[in-house]
Model the fold of this input.
Amino acid sequence: MTLLPRAGRAATKTILFGPAYRYAVFAIYTGSNELEWIIEDTEKEGFEGVIVRIRRAKTYREAVRGLEGAPKTPPV
Done:
């Protein structure tokens, strides 16, 4: 029996980047044991002060496309 990571759990470390370390990038596990890359804007707050997720993508490259100062390699 193989245990799969729980959906929504962090799969990588979080890396801050961009002007004044504005953006955060990290991956989470999906329900089908795949990775989903998340970009959050640490300067924007949504409902009840929660940091706003501005992008979700299947690949790291898609997630960071067009964001200033993005690391060339994904976090592990």
Observations:
- The CA atoms of residues 13 and 20 lie 19 Å apart.
- The chain has a mean pLDDT of 90.
- The radius of gyration is 13 Å.
- The longest strand covers residues 35-45.
